[in-house]
Amino acid sequence: MHTCSRLLRLALLVGAIFGAAAVHAQDALSTIVQSKKIRVAIPIDYPPYGFVGADMKPQGLDIDMANYVAGKLGVSTVELVPVNSANRVPYLLSKKVDVVISTLGKTPEREKVVDFTHAYSPFYQAVFAAKSTKITNWADLAGKTVSVTRGAMADTELEKVMPKGTIVKRFDDHVGTLSAFMSGQVQVVATSVTEGAGMIEKNPQVEYKLLLKDSPNFMGVNKGEEALKNKLDQIILDARKNGDLEKLSRKWLNRSTGDLPL
């Protein structure tokens, strides 16, 4: 009797261990579908992709895309997690979010730790300055002060082309980057064309100078989450075919999606 009791306890223990392992090994898509909840990293300091509206709620192209994805997955709860350029990938790797939809560009460095979906929206990086500031090629940046957001695509691309003697001032968010330029703390700003257009609208003396990179936005998921990546790819492909991506781009960027890469 005592032996049977021990065997029963052992069987229950083994079952618990394997049960826990099965839960741990469950893929992200299954967890999302079963819990009917998805956690999405989104920007709130980067209009028109993500910003806080008058009602104090996040809005923008990336927020619309996050809600669109949630609808296609059939989940009832969308947890929008505000991130910045520096912490969005760490949030994904630490499982604080299931997917990143936050103006995430594809780079070789990021591809080592993140799996990317198909592109879902256009995005450009460029250098802007006052019309009176002569910048016709990269050599002209020597001796000039440039603001850029730490860890953003513009930061990475600027490092590749800036000449020796360029003075770079890095900020933790886009608000700080743009404020430094608009307040005259720096002579040049490296940022997205979208934000550049916003600056030019506020100050016609600012102009586009040089293109850093044509860099579409992709969603990011953790390595090994093939089921989630494939599902998101299918949602994006369907949205391209039925015109939903085009509508989002027209709504927030006032331009076509163009030829987005797969």
Layout of SSEs?
Blueprint: H1 2-25, H2 28-35, E1 37-43, E2 45-46, E3 50-52, E4 58-59, H3 61-73, E5 77-83, H4 88-93, E6 99-104, H5 108-111, E7 114-121, E8 124-130, E9 145-149, H6 153-161, E10 167-171, H7 174-182, E11 188-192, H8 193-202, E12 206-214, E13 217-222, H9 226-242, H10 244-253
Provide key terms for this protein.
262 residues; alpha/beta; 5-stranded mixed β-sheet; 10 helices; elongated
Can you walk me through this structure?
This protein has 262 residues and is of the alpha/beta class. The protein is 42% helix and 27% strand. It is built from ten helices and 13 strands. It has helices spanning 2-25, 28-35, 61-73, 88-93, 108-111, 153-161, 174-182, 193-202, 226-242, 244-253; strands at 37-43, 45-46, 50-52, 58-59, 77-83, 99-104, 114-121, 124-130, 145-149, 167-171, 188-192, 206-214, 217-222. The chain has a five-stranded mixed beta sheet. A five-stranded mixed beta sheet has the order 10-9-11-8-12. A three-stranded antiparallel beta sheet has the order 2-3-4, covered by helices on one side. The protein is elongated, with a radius of gyration of 22 Å.
